[in-house]
Amino acid sequence: EPEVTQTPSHQVTQMGQEVILRCVPISNHLYFYWYRQILGQKVEFLVSFYNNEISEKSEIFDDQFSVERPDGSNFTLKIRSTKLEDSAMYFCASSGPSGGVNEQFFGPGTRLTVL
Amino acid sequence: QKEVEQNSGPLSVPEGAIASLNCTYSDRGSQSFFWYRQYSGKSPELIMSIYSNGDKEDGRFTAQLNKASQYVSLLIRDSQPSDSATYLCAVDGQNFVFGPGTRLSVLP
Known about the structure:
heterodimer, A: mainly beta, 7-stranded mixed sheet, 4-stranded antiparallel sheet, 11 strands, globular, B: 6-stranded mixed sheet
């Protein structure tokens, strides 16, 4: 069964460094998303991406963040100048057309630890 | 601010019982509603989607939607210990908004 994959599973970085989190969405999906979940808190929407551009973004997704689909398979989240409060699980998700545009399937996540 | 509310739990039910999970949302324009299951340390896993008022059944799971009351629920029949997890309600309005989740514990 097709699934969303994410790498790395765990990323440790120093405060102020840049990190890139990688995702490979389900191959025939057209909509891509990033979420974060701080330990013990709810899943928070960051950004959605369709047709090679951002379609929606939350207040969390400020200039520190960027997304890119550098090729036909990868979808990346870049966090510049990381802060301690960026420590969280970051989930990539994808959806549509099969199963409905809105049914989002999540990857296993990347645990980001900022020291 | 669009909100999705859930009782945090924990909700404890004995094995074989029906577990009832509830969710309310604030955005009247929302059209799509989802239930996800999240085991500790894992990613959300889609269980059910519902778009129309009424009930939708899939195996042991039944989702119920009442748009007038802005209320979504999930019933789990014949609950099993493996159903013990946090259940997340998600609502798709302008953005996908998750509730805080209800922790379900099914006791053997």
